User: Which sequence fits this backbone?
């Protein structure tokens, strides 16, 4: 028995039929296209995470405008 009750001979038979129907050249192209799609998907996910991190850091680093004044001894809170 093979995978989930399917014998190795059944899997080989299906593989032979697929190769006969599509040919090895088409299967290579499909594999390359699938690999490229996965690569682009991972790249876009990383870019999105980087954009979100940049936006969050911009929100956290807000600038406070104003002037500082000197604190005198009588202004201190006890």
Assistant:
């Amino acid at each position: 028995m093979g995978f989930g009750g399917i014998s190795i001979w059944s899997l080989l038979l299906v593989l032979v039929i697929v190769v006969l129907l599509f040919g090895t050249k088409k299967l290579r192209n499909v594999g390359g296209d699938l690999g490229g799609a996965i690569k682009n998907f991972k790249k876009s996910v990383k870019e999105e995470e980087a954009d979100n991190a940049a936006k969050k850091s911009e929100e956290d680093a807000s600038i406070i405008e104003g002037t500082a004044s000197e604190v005198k001894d009588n202004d201190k809170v006890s």
Observations:
- The mean pLDDT is 81.
- The two ends are 83 Å apart (CA to CA).
